[in-house]
Write a structure and sequence with these properties.
The chain crosses the membrane at residues 52-74, 112-133, 145-164, 176-199, 211-229, 267-290, 311-330, 342-359, 404-422. The chain has 569 residues and is an alpha/beta fold. The chain has helices spanning 14-43, 50-74, 86-100, 103-106, 109-133, 136-139, 145-169, 174-200, 210-225, 252-260, 265-297, 303-320, 329-337, 344-359, 369-382, 386-395, 402-422, 425-436, 468-485, 504-519, 533-544; strands at residues 82-83, 326-327, 447-453, 457-466, 491-502, 523-527, 558-560, 565-568. It folds into three domains: 14-169 and 236-382, no CATH class; 386-441, no CATH class; 448-546 and 554-568, 2-Layer Sandwich (Transcription Regulator spoIIAA), CATH 3.30.750.24.
């Protein structure tokens, strides 16, 4: 296996490089434009009139264009697909709804409310710039994995709750409304099931088209039931009558000037709090996406640089009156699955999306609001990541160690419940971080690491407590630096027999480190103490987090019972 330090054997042709990126961009455009429209309509769902809904749809699409091109040209890892995202958009929408309930602002209509929202996006941008300055991107790798999963679960529940309110406020009779929503979700999960079935039979289908089929199926069902139960205005299509896309960012500075004259201390404080929460949540969402790309491509990012670039782009979005730009886990996964590996996928996706909005904006007039709600619900359900599913599966199985699994499950559930009950993802994250510190109260708390570098391998002896927050700082970064400095290194051997404690986040982090090492042609071995909690925790994670077969060679986790060695090839 060649290492990243060796020169490439031959340069691929231009067609071999561009064609996969173009196909991935086409797939992303077809699949994600429905998502951009749904997120945009979510952002302005509390504002009256079809123009507000159409404006929101346009804001969602143009935010994607800005995010895609900006991060493609400045991001440290590719393909990172950035644009509007569910959690940040829900907070953006909640802010507009809160401000719209205040007569002082509502009397001045749409410009005043959107001016306040743009100010909140500017606060979010400053928050991200500060997080980058204080190197919060690196600190995010120290947050326990169940906190991120619980946060995604809670944000998904909030998004579904928001759409349910939209559906219940719609005066279309319940049976037809449910038929439309059910048709969209059935198409989504039917496509996902079909992808899995085709894979088992040796065929390949693009999973990312599920949201596109959701939009089509829900729209078709809407027009069918339209003949039996004519809807009221609140349930009809998005509409673009009289809408001018060129006016989207026009007069934003004047809008802000007028808005400032309406603000008092209480409203400014509210905008600042929402903006800071949007900035923190957008940063977390982006860092999750970056971490996933690292794991899938075996590359290392510069997370603080990526936070800095997202902050700068969000300042631009605030000036243009757009939504927050956030790194997307689901869209980045879709790009990776479609074969994307470079920045060209994001650039081509942005150009195709822009062409669609410039030459096909009237297609919005055929999109029913209930179909957009179906897309949002399907997206929210897709936010339930594999890690949360693994924790849940281990909790209800007989697999040991019970205490380690239970600790991860309680943390996951607490973050999700606090997020859902308070309606604020920031509260859930704060609760998760606070609970994540509790394991440090019980000894042993210290992790001792001893590195011994040899000609062709590195021995790593660990003693004490191996918890997730210490893996990147004490293990991954030093070892990757050793590997870079010693191209002849062919193996890393971890001696875990002296460990007294471990958590599932640490196990997951080591699994990701294995993938990074294999990409560099370096084998990883573990010396484990038989029948210990550490061995049981590794077995639990390997049951659901085994790396892809294409990176493994012949064996997966072969065990030498004589020397108690677990080897990954």
């Amino acid at each position: 296996m060649s290492t990243p330090f060796a020169p490439p054997r031959s340069a691929p042709s231009l067609a071999a490089r561009i064609v996969p990126e173009l196909l991935a961009a086409i797939l992303l455009t077809v699949a994600s434009c429905a998502e951009y429209i749904g997120l945009g309509t979510q952002a302005t769902s509390s504002l009256p009139g079809s123009q507000a809904v159409a404006l929101g749809a346009m804001m969602g699409v143009l935010t994607a264009v800005v995010g895609l091109i900006g991060i493609a040209l400045s991001g440290s890892i590719q393909p990172l697909i950035s644009g509007p995202r569910v959690a940040a958009t829900v907070l953006f929408s909640n802010l507009i709804a809160t401000l719209a309930a205040q007569p002082r602002l509502a009397a001045h209509g749409l410009p005043a409310l959107l001016g306040c929202a743009a100010l909140a996006v500017a606060v979010a941008a400053v928050t991200q710039l500060l997080l980058a300055a204080f190197k919060a991107g690196t600190l995010a790798r120290m947050v326990p994995a169940p906190v991120f999963s619980g946060l995604l679960f809670g944000a998904a529940a909030l998004a579904i709750e928001s759409q349910v309110q939209t559906i219940t406020h719609c005066s279309l009779e319940w049976p037809p409304a449910l038929v439309v929503i059910a048709a969209g979700l059935a198409a989504h999960f039917g496509w996902v099931y079909g992808v899995g079935l085709a894979a088992r039979r040796g065929y390949s289908l693009p999973k990312g088209l599920s949201l596109f089929w959701t939009l089509l199926a829900a729209s078709a069902a809407y027009y069918v039931v339209l003949n039996f139960s004519p809807p009221a205005a609140d349930c009809r299509t998005l509409g673009i009558s009289g809408f001018d896309p060129a006016a989207l960012g026009a007069g934003v500075v004047e809008r802000w000037t007028h808005t400032f004259s309406l603000l008092d201390g209480a409203i400014l404080a509210q905008i600042a709090v929402y903006g800071a929460l949007i900035g923190v949540l957008a940063s977390l969402d982006t860092l999750i996406a970056i971490s996933n790309i690292e794991s899938a491509t075996h590359a290392r990012s510069q997370p603080n640089r990526d936070l800095l670039m997202h902050g700068a782009l969000n300042l631009l979005c605030a000036l243009a009156g757009l939504l927050p730009v956030v790194g997307s886990l689901t869209r980045s996964n879709m790009a990776l699955a479609a074969g994307a590996r470079t920045r060209w996928t994001a650039i081509l996706h942005a150009l195709l999306t822009l062409a669609l909005i410039l030459f096909g904006s009237r297609l919005l007039s055929y999109v029913p609001k209930l179909a957009a709600a179906s897309v949002m619900i399907a997206m929210a359900l897709d936010m339930l990541d594999d890690w949360s599913k693994l924790i849940t599966r281990l909790t209800f199985s007989a697999m040991e160690p019970r205490q380690v699994v239970a600790a991860a499950m309680w943390l996951f559930v607490t973050v999700a419940l606090v997020t859902i009950v308070t309606g604020e993802p920031g509260d859930g994250f704060a609760a998760g971080c606070a609970l994540g510190l509790l394991p440090l109260l019980w000894p042993p708390r210290r992790l001792d690491v001893q590195l011994s570098a040899h000609a062709s391998r590195i021995d790593v002896a660990l003693r004490g407590a191996l918890l997730g927050h210490a893996v990147d700082r004490k293990i991954c970064e030093p070892l990757l630096a050793h590997v870079a400095a010693q191209p002849g290194c062919k193996g890393i051997e971890f001696d875990l027999r002296a460990l007294q404690r471990i958590d599932l986040s640490a196990c997951k982090a080591l699994m990701q480190f294995e993938a990074l090492s294999r990409a560099r042609g370096v084998a990883v071995l573990y010396r484990l103490k038989p029948d210990s909690p550490v061995s049981a925790a590794f077995a639990a994670i390997r049951s659901g987090q085994a790396p892809p077969a294409s990176f493994l060679g012949a064996s997966v986790g072969s065990v030498d019972e004589t020397n108690n060695v677990v080897q990954t090839s």
